[in-house]
Amino acid sequence: MTTSFLLTWCLLSLATLLSWWLDASYDGRWVGGAVLLVAFFKARLVLMVFMGVRTAPAAIQWSCEAWVLAACTVVLATYWFAPLV
Question: What is the rounded CA–CA span in Å between residue 8 and residue 5?
Fold first, then answer.
């Protein structure tokens, strides 16, 4: 296992712990948004490091970055503007 993979795995683990801590420690709608942001940060890390997009041609890198940004925007907007039940 390379150092890059190990550091990324540690960062992913810390991000997971942050999500758990936020969910357990705070109340409110902003917590869900924060947890979703952490999830998309983790998705970007997995794409770039473990799926090898970081070393792919620029067009693939930009496509993946655009996909993560678009998906994050749509999911957060849906979450934020959905009526509370």
Answer: 5
CA angle 36, 40, 43 (to 5 degrees): 140
**Which two structure tokens, joined as six digits, stand for 37?**
């942001």
- pLDDT for 18-55, tens place per residue? 999 998 888 888 898 999 999 999 999 999 999 999 99
pTM: 0.85
DSSP letters, the chain, are --HHHHHHHHHHHHHHHHHHHHHHH--SHHHHHHHHHHHHHHHHHIIIIIS-GGGS-HHHHHHHHHHHHHHHHHHHHHHHHSPP-
Total Cβ atoms within 10 A of residue 76:
15
